[in-house]
Amino acid sequence: MDRIEKLKQFLTESPEDSFLKHALALEYIKLGNDEAARELFESLLLADPGYVGSYYHLGKLLERKNEIDSAIKIYETGMEEAKKAGEKNAYGELRGAYEELVM
Predict the structure, then answer these.
(1) 3-state secondary structure string, the chain?
(2) Which of 8, 20, 78, 102 sees the fewest Cβ atoms within 10 Å?
């Protein structure tokens, strides 16, 4: 069974698991299926806005789609959430990506 099928199986058992959704979205990105990845990241962050790692990947996906304003908003929200959670490394990565777009 491939990784995507395994992750989907795990998600049927634990449909609200943010880690599994994030991992599945990353697998979709590897396959070039940005739309499926985007849907997963967006639903994940809607349900669990504190899952900071997904903001960076969603922002990068939006950059690839040339949706720069949306990417900036995602980075800004991610930085706020990272700050709340005290996740300095994630904050730094998000800020770096954000600054590349706005400067």
Answers:
(1) CCHHHHHHHHHHHCCCCHHHHHHHHHHHHHCCCHHHHHHHHHHHHHHCCCCCHHHHHHHHHHHHCCCHHHHHHHHHHHHHHHHHHCCHHHHHHHHHHHHHHHC
(2) 102
